[in-house]
Amino acid sequence: MTPILNIRFQFLLVLLFLTSALMEVKAEEFTLPENPFTRLVRSEDGELKSFDTSLVTFVSQDGSQRVTLVGAIHIGEAQYYKTLNEKFTQFDAVLFEMVGDGDPRPDSAKDSKGIVGSAQRLSAEMMGLEFQIGSIDYHAKNFIHGDMTTTEFKDGMKKRGDGVLVWYARSLGYENAQRSETSPEDLKNILNLIVSSDKSKALRRMSAEKMADIKSTTKPVDGKNGSTLIRDRNAKALQVLREQLDSGKKNVAIFYGAAHLPDFAQKLQEDFGMKPEKIEWITCWKLD
User: Fold this and answer.
1) 147 closest CA partner among 244, 69, 47, 255
2) pTM to 2 decimals?
């Protein structure tokens, strides 16, 4: 090889090395957006098009294990739950939320009892949507209970001195502090609800803004010192996650309500030494 060709060859090798290094740096610098778990999609003229939730994947430092946070909204379109069921088949294990004893695996919406379950079923019916329980296949072989038992949940509430009334009071106080008057967007939504021929879609649009704002749920409910509803249940799920990873599982999903995910994301980075790798969005409600 002539000296000139040799120099050119070495230059190409250096260029390839630098390109490869830059690609690696770019991959390592992936950071999460301010809210990586829910989003509102709008058209160019600002009209609402959809309300989406995400699958956010974290990877271990050596790249051998991955944990994906799958944000759930408990009422959604049939296609939304169909897509999630298909996604879940790709994981070695899916940790699901459901306070209960033994191995609670609901079959239909009727299995969701109590005030919260009844309210969610009613909301789904009014909005023309499906209920998560009855739509998700909780009997899939890779589904693993990753939540508190009934006793653990009751003991947690007793220890913290919290419960439904406390969470409601915190949420009400937070909302009043954040808003002193009805916004123009609220007035527009109320008017649309009154005059709309499609009440279910109008209700979706009216609810989407609030549903997409995770902080308005987590901050007041969790308070300054955490709550049984979010922080303690998350701790139990992460305990189960650790067991699954230690047993050799390489690709695990945590399927919890979107309000739980900010704390999960923080713990995966701080306690598990993982880093965010990618985000995939799925439409939960169509709004146009």
Assistant:
1) 255
2) 0.80
- The strand pair at 48-59 and 93-96 is best described as unpaired
pLDDT score, position 181: 53
Q: How far is CA 111 from CA 96, 98, 130, in A?
A: 15, 11, 15
Which is nearest to 168 in space by CA: 110, 112, 115, 98? 115
* Lowest model confidence (mean pLDDT) among 21-30, 33-42, 204-213: 21-30
Q: Which residues, at least 6 apart from 201, have a Cβ–Cβ distance to it below 8 Å?
A: 128, 287
Look at the block and give the residue holding tokens 């209970």: 145
Q: For 108, which DSSP code?
A: S
Torsion angle defined by CA atoms of residues 165, 166, 169 and 174, in that order, rounded to the nearest 10 degrees? -150
Neighbours of 230 (CB within 10 A): 22
C-alpha torsion sign, points 17, 23, 27, 29: positive
Q: How far apart are CA 14 and CA 275, in angstroms?
A: 29
Check whether 214 has a pLDDT greater than 90.
Answer: no
Concatenated DSSP letters of 243-270: HHHHTT--EEEEEEEGGGHHHHHHHHHH
| Beta strands 130-131; 48-59: pairing state | unpaired
Q: Which residues 6+ apart lie within 8 Å of 224 measured at CB?
A: none
Q: Is 130 exposed, middle or buried (0-12, 13-18, 19+ CB in 10 A)?
A: buried
Residue ranges with strand state E in 92-197 = 93-96, 130-131, 143-145
To the nearest whole number, what is the mean pLDDT of the chain?
82
Q: Which one-letter DSSP state was computed for residue 111?
A: G
